[in-house]
Amino acid sequence: MDRLISLLNNVSDTYFDFVIGVSNYAKRSEANLNTMISFIENNPDALSSDIIRYMIDQDNYFDYAERVAGVSTTLQA
Fold this sequence. Notes:
The chain is mainly alpha-helical. The protein has one domain. Helix content is 66%, strand content 0%. The chain has five helices and no strands. It has helices at residues 2-9, 16-27, 30-42, 48-56, 61-69. The termini are far apart. The mean pLDDT is 89.
């Protein structure tokens, strides 16, 4: 986790809530942690918005929100 936090703090437009949000997602699993580290290391010029977009595009991103908050992430007709 220290590696991820270091990378997040070095993003050119970093801010506190961004670091906390990405860190919380990464804490869910080792795979999430490794995915985020890999993305940032392979995209050193990525802005916080690029990293957030990548994170929320992950297949499992909304699974956690749905379980914790009972929030439906599927559109209802």
